[in-house]
Amino acid sequence: MFLSIFDIFKPGIGPSSSHTMGPMVAAARFLGALAGGTEPEPGSGPPAHVTATLHGSLAWTGKGHATDRAVCLGLLGFDPARVDMDRAEAALERLAADRTLAPEGLPEMRFDPAEDVVFDWGPPLPGHANGLVLRAFDAAGHLRMQETYYSVGGGFVVTEREHAGHADLRAAKFEAGFPYPFGSAAEMLRMGAESGLSIARMKWRNETVLIPEGELGRRIDAIWSAMDACIDRGLSQEGILPGGLSVRRRAQAIHVQLCEEAGRNLAQPHVVNDWLSVYAMAVNEENAAGGRVVTSPTNGAAGVVPSVIRYYRDHCVGARPEGIRTFLLTAAAIGGLVKHNASISGAEVGCQGEVGSASAMAAAGLCAALGGTNAQVENAAEIALEHHLGMTCDPAAGLVQVPCIERNGLGAIKAVSAASLSLRGDGTHFMPLDNCIEAMRQTGRDMSEKYKETSQGGLAVNLPEC
Ligand code: SF4
Question: In a 3-state reduction of DSSP, which class is residue 136?
Fold first, then answer.
């Protein structure tokens, strides 16, 4: 398999993996290249000034997603997985006042957050809708170094060169000695049939090429702990989300209602959908507030998988702790297939690639945790993805709030329905998952740019009068 479970599920901060975490990583990588001896432009002096230009969707929705702030945090040396937000806020305040960077291994450099992060609203860069160009100049204003990065979804960042060499990278990873290097659902099913192993077990064996078994189990458990903590924090918070839309957090109040109704024999059977929604909304409200979340596979879609795992743990008959590992490994296998063969980036294929992919991952995970066969798991993922095809990305005011927060709840509900439907069959079905992933890729390619995280169409241009 090409992507580790820890590539798919990465701890970080909200509100966006592609627009916050990715640019943060890119900025830090640029400073690393500047300090680490990447060949400078001939004749240029030591770096004295840094700028960043945001292109495509990073420019169109960058304000709402706090992309400029993310670039500053990356240049200040913060890493999305470990950032201490109190320290980060203090460092941002200092930067705004001093307009100077002092990274380790480099001279002091001028960087004014208000002037040196440029939003370029022209055509996107050719490689990907989420592009950013970082430049360093010497004291005389001559270019010393320039690098183009693409934030390709889920917090993944590639340079222009790496993006162009994607096929080589893929081949290299195949040769890295993974025992079950499936690159499609068909290969995954064939390898499972030949080995007699579940999808989760094959994924586990692939991961152990890189990580010892004991550590692997602990790290998978840590993913779930971080997701679970995020749900709990979201369920305990109230108030208005930042960004100016005046969207109120709802998860806490809904959760209180659900807890009061529980055990009273008054609830309608469909109320279980409200539990799924409230778990997902808790995560996405945290994400919208810039809190700690786990990409799954992105920040915007980070509520679906945790919600369905919580549903499995707290509501399903026969749930076991090992089932959560099975869930996450299976979900990561499906997320890897979607990312590898299509995209998990809303700026590239719309929300079908974010919440649609997350729903397919959660459906597969739940189906596996409940004892589904490999064929049933593939069927569950396909059902969930199929019924998100064509879904656009049109966040109001460029914020990951409307429709994103509720949409995660609905993605979780579809995932549970898809797993349940597939478990009622034997895995035989009409439309293979590979075909559905390809349909998603083609639909995304043909989708108007207006509906790919630019906030230029759909709900984003039909806002109510305030
Ligand atoms: S609409 Fe979907 S893809 Fe777009 S920002 Fe929201 S969750 Fe992400």
Answer: strand
Domain match, 60 and 155 both? yes
Best of 391, 392, 404, 440 for a ligand 1 pocket test (most atoms within 8 Å of beta carbon): 404
Q: Which atom of ligand 1 is nearest to the CA of 453?
A: 4
Same domain, 51 and 191: no
Write out the two tokens for 32: 């690393």
Atom of ligand 1 minimally distant from the CA of 392: 1
The number of beta carbons lying within 10 Å of the beta carbon of residue 292 is 18
pLDDT tens readout for residues 385-423: 999 999 999 999 999 999 999 999 999 999 999 999 999
Find tokens 């970080």 and name the residue.
12
| Nearest residue by C-alpha to atom 6 in ligand 1 | 404
CA atoms within 13 A on the CB side of 410: 14
Ligand 1 center from residue 466 Cα (angstroms): 23
Retrieve residue 196's tokens. 């007699």
The DSSP code sequence of 288-337 is: HTT-EEE-SS-STTTTHHHHHHHHHHHHSTT--HHHHHHHHHHHHHHHHH
**Are 219 and 301 within one domain?**
yes
CA distance 206 to 3: 10
pLDDT digits (tens, 9 = 90+) for 11-29: 999 999 999 999 999 999 9
What domain count does the chain have? 2
298 and 421 in a single domain? The answer is yes
% helix / strand / coil in the chain, to the nearest 5? 55, 10, 35
Q: What are phi and psi of 303, to 5 degrees?
A: -90, -20
* pLDDT of 1 over the 50 cut: no
* CB 363, CB 422: distance < 8 Å: yes
Find the domain containing 260 and state its range.
181-461
Q: Which one of 115, 134, 167 terminates a domain? A: 167
Tokens of 391: 């879904």
Which of 276, 293, 165 lies closest to 227, judged by CA? 293
DSSP 8-state class, residue 106: S
User: Which tokens belong to 113?
Assistant: 């957050």
Pocket residue to mutate for ligand 1, from 60, 393, 402, most atoms within 8 A of Cβ: 393
By DSSP bridging, strand 143-153 and strand 156-159 are antiparallel
Question: For residue 346, which atom of ligand 1 is closest to its CA?
Answer: 3
Pairing between strand 117-119 and 11-13? unpaired
Q: What pLDDT does residue 144 have? A: 96
| pLDDT confidence bin for 173, thresholds 50/70/90 | low
Report pLDDT digits (tens) over 424-461: 999 999 999 999 999 999 999 999 999 999 999 999 99
9 part of a folded domain:
no
Residue 211 lies in a domain: yes
Q: State which of 110, 133, 167 marks the end of a domain.
A: 167
